[in-house]
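EI: anyone free to look at a 544-residue chain?
SC: sure, send it
EI:
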Amino acid sequence: MSRPPTRLKLPIGIQSFRKIREGGFYYVDKTPFIAALAEGANYYFLSRPRRFGKSLFLDTLAAAFAGERALFTAHDGSDGTAPRPALYLADHWDWAKRYPVVRISFGQGIRHSPEELDEAIAWQLDANAARLNVPISRAHGIAERFADLITAAAEAYRQRTVVLVDEYDKPILDHITRPDLAAVMRERLRNFYSVLKERDADLHFVFLTGVSKFSKVSLFSGLNNLADITLIDEFATLCGYTETDLDTVFAPEFIAAEQEGRPLSRSEVRAWYNGYWWGSNARVYNPFDVLQLLRFRTFRPWWFESGTPTFLVELLKERAFFTPRLERLFATEALLSSFDVEAIEPEALLWQTGYLTIADAHSAGGLIEYELTLPNTEVRTALNQALTHVLLPSRPGESLTQIVRMLQQGDSEGLHHHFVRLFASIPHDWYRNNPIAQYEGYFASVCYSHLASLGLPLKAEAVSEAGQVDLVIEAGATIWVIEFKVVSGEAATGEAMAQIQARDYAAPYRGKPGVARVIELGVEFSKTRRTLVGWHAHEWVAQR
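SC: here you go
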């Protein structure tokens, strides 16, 4: 009888490569990417959402370039540290060369002024100089001292310097709601990063990570050799866990969960936390979510709760964003890459921060267009819960589980009464004082975000041969096919249901395996009465 695989410690919140390797933690081997990067260009930029492992990867890069070979080779644990297998880089790296590594990180704390930013950078430059045992002048400005450090390190080690910058954009993003201050921070950083061009002769390798993709013109002026690998197929899985990683590295945790009577359904894990795409054919899991799930064995929006995007939600409210578009919208690569404090496009911000991902890429001529969508159940549910709070002044009377049961049981009448009460609870003064309630898509946005917050699989603007229906909800064996219309008068017109039936939007679902009931639902809102005036439902039931 074979022994179950050994369980290791879960590396939740650990960004130290040494601690993981010596402390007996699980580690997904990302070192093949380091070998590929070293063989390619010298200057790289990578954009990924927060808590996706960027800092740990930079720490692994630092250990490789500093020549800390013992951390990459196999070890039996004889010195008191944990036993560990060899990593890919152990036999695919020139360990005879040791490079001086300068590390700058903006991940911790908020700098409230450009002076505080300068002080934080100065402290890090001094710390790097002390670690490398090289002198730098204190009489110069921040940029000059950075340049001195790079050159002094190269001269002292007789190898060109490696520079690693983590969260390069955080001092700007921390003040994104104050564009004037954010612009000042950007100018400070542009001056600082300009050193990377000026000291090219003394630099061997440069790697910058962050959440956003500020344009090279605005932040990296002149650094034309900076290779953006954000959407390069070869590096698509550099951050995040793959399906294979869960099958192999974390297999002991899934086995233990089953043996202890709390099995974790892989299909449910996939629906909740997988779905992120940055190239190739691979979709990856949010690593923070996977580790928290394995620790607590509870499905929750762990990543979302670790940093509520208040600014993002307020921006969508301010722009009167039509929230059903979260399920399917289109953006060019230029739009996804264009982010600056003076011009924030919701699509770019949603994608760069991880609340949207790429569903597909379409090309025609020389144009590449990306189809964006919500990545998984966690983001769909949690983001729409946050949006519902800004779209509505009060919470619905019924419990959310009660509404889910209505959808599963095909209770059209109960759902109708629920939405009537929902809109009736909105005070008239709230309509007058909130511009978001004035735009035509408000009613559909409320319905979509409220329903999307329930955690059920759904599609907005679902495409079929007959066209696009506004919303399709999969509630167990019951499928809802919904069309919304805003009418200018005070009475229902029947247009929503007429469109559903004329174009037969429900056809792909009738007779589908596992589907017991299909409900066609036409919903109409009156702009003048600010309430539901039309609710027409037609039910198809599978023959037994």
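EI: The mean pLDDT is 91.
SC: 👍
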